[in-house]
Model the fold of this input.
Amino acid sequence: MALYRRARSTRLLVITLVVASLLTITVDYRGGHGGPFEIAGRATQTVVGALQGAVSKVIHPVSAFFSGLGHIGSLSSRNKHLQAEIQRLQQQHAHDVSLERVNTELQALLKLQSSLGQNGVAASVIGQSVGNFEWTITIGRGSSGGIKVHDPVVSGDGLVGHVVEVTPTSAVVQLIIDPDSAVAARLSSSGETGLIVGERNQDLQMQLVRPDARVFPSEQVVTAGYQGGLYPAEIVIGTVSHVYQQNGGLTKIVAIRPAVDFSSLETVLVLTGPKR
Amino acid sequence: MRRALSWTVVVLTALVLQSTLFSQVTLAGVKPELVYLVTVVLAFLEGPASGAVAGFAGGMAQDFLLNQPKGITALTLTLVGYAVGTIRQYIVTPSPLLPVVLVGGATVVGVMFYGVVAFLLGVAVGTSFLIKVALLAGVYNAVLTPILFPVLRRVAESSRARKVFRW
Done:
């Protein structure tokens, strides 16, 4: 009898918890950003962010060792790949002098712009997402360092992502490889624009490119920087790795290899606004 | 009270480790799902009611760290905790492999369930990617179980209320 009653009260408990979860999902889904759970989320992030900061200092050498081990297989195949790449590039080199000139010009322009145009806050990466279905990093500076939600984040190599959540001492950055991320981008040689969407651990996809746009292999892709957009113009995103030709398609899809190695990010620069 | 406190510490540790150490030490790019592991082990040791509560609380904590609709992990883990705790009562085997199998299986099913609910709420979850993550997270969790199970059992035993011996 007692067992029966206990089983019944357990069932009641489970039903209550399930209903509570469903309510949370509904309220959060309806509320979107700035919903009532924002505060609870920020509190959890603050606590875990502080712990991450402490732990990542201790753990970094250990995890660097393991991630090095994990990459051994890919390193040897990468080596072969690079050898072939060198040969191809040597042959191509003669042809691309003009392209190279444009490229260096653009690079110089970019350096100039990023060094003059924006205020930046440097921050170290203290953690990554707890989930397997999103690509974010946690950085060790927050609103007390002047970081706001929607601030663009770059590294020395190129565009990293944008800030999606801030606490006083840490911030969460959504990477451009997250499938929910979308960046307006421009092919550097032709000036054609498109939308770069994250494809998890694969190359980024540049969508909505005009079907008759000329796309060169390995050409650079930079942010388009529309008026009122999230990202300033001319930040390097990556290079063209493949073009998907769709017969009769209304748009072209271009695969982009990101310039940033997201698995080994250590320091990033948060752009907090134009310099005055 | 003491019990709630020690399990809070366990869940927080799991979340911090998962976002620091285990985000570097991945299995083909997939992190373990430590909160799933904690929930299953707790349900295994303490029964369906504790499993459901632990799953709900741990899931909620993980949800609040994700930039996705909140409450999905809580829903998933409530059901996982209850299911594992219930199934456990009907299995009589002295095999030490039982927790490993339960953790692995429950993680695969749980992650699939999470992915389907997230997909229904408009999160971009690719089918083949979801299956890959579910299987690899299951394997990773199963591999970690022999290491973490004794630790979690010790926490459970030291914090369990004494003298309560009900049938």
In short: Chain A is about 40% helix and 30% strand.
